[in-house]
Amino acid sequence: MRILFITSTRLGDAVLSTGLLDVLLARYPQARFTIACGPVAAGLFEAMPRRERTIVVTKRKYDLHWLALWRACVGTRWDLCVDLRGSAVTLFLAARRRAIMRGGRRQGARIVHLGQVLRLSPPPLPVMWTGAADRARAAAMLPDGPVWLALAPTANWAGKVWPADHFIALARALQDRWPGMRPVILYGPGETERRMAAPVLAALPDAVDAGGGLTLAQVAAVLARCGGFVGNDSGLMHLSAAVGTPTLGLFGPSRMSEYGPVGRCARGIAAPGPEGSAPIAGLAVAPVVEAAVGLMERAPVTADLAGAGG
Hints:
Distance between the termini: 56 Å
CATH superfamily of the largest domain: Glycogen Phosphorylase B
Mean pLDDT: 94
Structural class: alpha/beta
Number of helices: 10
Strand content: 15-25%
Helix content: 25-40%
Organism: Gluconacetobacter liquefaciens (Acetobacter liquefaciens)
Radius of gyration: 20 Å
CATH topology of the largest domain: Rossmann fold
Shape: globular
Low-confidence stretches: 306-310
GO molecular function: ADP-heptose-lipopolysaccharide heptosyltransferase activity
Order of helices and strands: EHEEHEEHHEHEHEHEHEHEH
GO cellular component, one term: cytosol
Strand order of the largest sheet: 8-7-6-9-10-11
Pfam families: Glyco_transf_9
InterPro entries: Glyco_trans_9 (IPR002201), LPS_LOS_Heptosyltrfase (IPR051199)
């Protein structure tokens, strides 16, 4: 049995879609999977069980990337095509069944819309697959002993970025509460991301710099070793929630009702004001500290923190 799964170009959306794949893996234990996604998201699927191949869909002028995808898939007879991009590609492929996510902006959580594609209610939680080598590298970077706090102070546009001095104050407040805690600073590849993270790294000399050079599976393994995560609305936030790390997402002008983190222990906190237009700088440090403490103390994986603070 062969399944074609077309998911997002954006990392966060692709992470949210992994729960559907997890359901399909369990429902069809003999199936082999082809994943079609954008280049940023491709690394999510490297360790996925029964993945036959990944087709990287790179945007081209005149929507010619869809033609390229059709050419890569037309020679296969598919048992199921799942298209989360709402494209016409699967309509022109030989397929026994199709599940297509229709376009248009909808109200409510994105994860719910994804679940509706396979008529799943409640929708499945996102997952992340890692290999033994990924986990070994993460263990070498973050050895047992300290409580590791993941901070993600970057995002793909400036309006989503909580000020660097707020992240620094948050880290110091949490370290005052839990003296054994050490920050782990995560950010994406490229000079722009590195510059956004630089002030936080400079102010926290005991922090581990985990940005820029890791694969997505390695990042996921690093996040899985952390006792908590606080970060901007980003793909890293969704990845943290998917691995089960207690995750607090920070929201300003982006829509928390649509893209809040989804996981076993995850929540968002938004700047005061109308959703979709509130400046993220208006989100004060104190409520973020309070939310992070509450989230981490309630999480089973960090239950030992409850008695460790002042």
